[in-house]
Amino acid sequence: MWSSLVALRRLQRIAVAPLNITGGLTGSVHREISTVKRVYVTRQIPPDGLKILRESGQVQFELWNSDDDTVPRKELLQKVKGVDGLLCMLTEKIDAELLDAAGPNLKVLSTMSVGFDHLNLEELKKRGIRVGYTPEVLTDSVAELTVALLLTTSRRLVEATHEAKTGGWGTWRTLWLCGHELANSTVGILGLGRIGVAIADRLAPFKVKKFIYTDVEPRPELASSINAEYVSFDELAKQSDFLAVCCALTPETKEICNKNLFSKMKSNAIFINTSRGGVVNQEDLYEALSTGQIAGAGLDVTVPEPLPTDHPLFTLKNCVILPHVASASYSTRNAMSSLAANNLLLGLKGEPMIKELKL
Length: 359
What we know:
Blueprint: H1 2-14, H2 27-34, E1 37-41, H3 47-55, E2 59-63, H4 73-79, E3 85-88, H5 96-102, E4 108-111, H6 121-126, E5 130-132, H7 139-154, H8 157-166, E6 186-190, H9 194-203, E7 210-214, H10 220-226, E8 228-230, H11 233-239, E9 242-245, H12 259-262, E10 270-273, H13 282-290, E11 296-299, E12 319-321, H14 330-348, E13 356-357
Parallel strand pairs: 1-2, 1-3, 3-4, 4-5, 6-7, 6-9, 7-8, 9-10, 10-11, 11-12
Antiparallel strand pairs: 5-13
Helix pairs in contact: 1-14, 3-14, 4-5, 7-9, 9-10
């Protein structure tokens, strides 16, 4: 939390100062007005980011004024016509169709997300459009939520709450609602980055015996900070009592968590995914959970999102599903919106963004 607040304050100081117009318009002010850029914002972003845009004096922006619904695709294609900049969420598909609709004026895209699988990077690169994103500021929030989801799943808290509310709480029973504890366990991390390290830092005080990880290659510098051992993908599956998925969604990781992984996991293993839904084959996960191949799963991300309420995974007591809320803290979401706004403004000025994807 502290680091998110520090990041937020730093980002707020970076914001471009507003125009201070008093009296008549000078020639320099006329020139500044003539260079004001048109921007479309695809959602009512948290207030700190909106404040930065409003006070910059650099942009004239229009936004989809709702946080409850995404902007309809047809309207989005209309609104982006002729804009210089676009600030979007992970819910908007930025593809050739949209970029064609926007036209050649579009030079900067800023996404309020750490992930970028909703962006067609090849098309953006081809058109010379710069891309900003919002990593790092959400590390603490995502790590906290991952730990909360892990504990909720492993200690069967959703089941326990339901029993307490619906009359299932009777006499004390020796094995009723027993779960799995972290003490003396092996925790596996699929994709070791900042978030994976932050998760391990938070789990270590629970007396975890061992941390293991796998990635495209060993990451000794990060691993040494949490005393984690690099293992193969198969060994990660075989050894982990708890397996946290922290990898990005790429063509190589699409549905990497499938029958092959689940069949090698322990029957008491807990599977947690707070990365992207697309890294999991949900049909294979359902089979693993429903047959007792693994003990439980906690998901903050699914395919699609939202997951239909009649999806088979919702029928399972040993599957906890959250509506993609890993970064949902006030400080983190404001820090994300501030970073997204500043990336956009700096990009429109032709200056280095704070966080820019290298295409």
